[in-house]
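User: Hi! I'm working on a homework problem where we have to compare a predicted structure to a textbook description. Could you give me the structure for the chain below?
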Amino acid sequence: MPNVVTVLGVIVLALGGLMFSSTSLTALPATIAQLWLLLHLAPVNADGIAIGVLPMLPALGFVSLISYRIRVAVRERVSLPNLLLLVLFALLIPIALTLIATAMMWDASRVFDVGPPPIAEAVARTLLLHMSAVMIGMGSRLWRALARRFGAPGWLIDAAVSAMRILVAMSLVAVLALAVLLIFSWPRQVEVAGIYNSTGAVVAVSLLSLLYLPNAIIMTVAVLFGSGFQLGAASVSLFSIDLVALPPLPLLALIPGSVHDWAVLGLVPVVAITAIFASRVRLNLAQAVATGVFAAAFALLASYLTSGEIGELGESGPMLWLTAGMVFIWITGAGIISVVFGMFMQYRVAARERALAQAEADAAAVAADDSKEAEEAPEEEIIDGEVIAEDAEDAEDIEDTEELSDEEIAEEAPDGGEDSEAPADESPGQEEPEDSENSEEQQPDSQKPAATD
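Assistant: Happy to help. Predicted structure tokens:
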């Protein structure tokens, strides 16, 4: 369905362009074929000029449309045969249309000053674009299910997703870098605009630069990874800039004339972004290497799609293998460093936990000893308490005895009369019975008991 919609849109656009330019409709088949090939980044030959670096903004829009339709198709449960058919149709139909467009361009070359693109390169770029759309549209959830189905490790999918996110984050950094370059290159922008005589021409070249903006972002990402790009004989990197006469385009006017001392700081975002993603995902060593491999593959794909020949300038675009190698080195290296640092921090945390556990064990042992002493301490207090209680009882008995003695003395005191009072210095001895006998003898006879019969 997206291919049908795209073909219809291409036909409408071709008709509108021919009518706007007052061109004969005999050029309609060649125009339709050329627009289809342009949409798939296939090289263009016109008037003896070959252009292999084509604007990526329309291609990215087309890929987004296809990936969205595929995501809608596989949103619910999908069987493996249906998924296979979907992928085959998504790849084979565009390739067939590219072959038809190439044949149409070959046929039109006998009438118009155009030529067919290299068929192998046209098919390869079409296949890569639609494969990218299919891979993005399937989504990580379906890819994980396929990995489980075929016994592949799930962390490979996580590594691929992490690599894509790192490159997207680096693309945002590249957009920020281009905005800064636009501010500093404003005098050159004014100079480029002064070359054109009309406002329409300025608007046209500005729109052309906007169409090539994704190409510029990819080239800037290559520079930020320590690689570079070339525009024919000109080359640009963080370490050197060698320029030649370039077409008067606002996008090319962003390139500074020389390298500033702070340009090397462009390598910092790579390490920072990779470290952030590695810490969030908690990669291991194998995942860090796999992330670097996937990122290098994605960078190689993007660099290939933005490379080619530009007329008299020659070969242009990012340095393919150097860019892929630098992406692998930086992302893998930063990922491994992050993993090692995370392992070191985990070791420190584990050591701290072991120290805390040992301290808690020691504290528990001390508490156990204290509890044993506390258990022994109440027994001694109980014994002391018993002793104290016995002493208290003895004291009470003594007090009671003393009280009883005093009471007995108090009761005997009236009976004894004055005789009972003895001098304090006289001690009771054996004389007491004599006194009692004398007292009995002194009693009158009347007081003696009468004799009974």
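For your comparison, note the following. The chain has two domains: 1-152, 154-349. The two ends are 159 Å apart (CA to CA). Good luck with the assignment!
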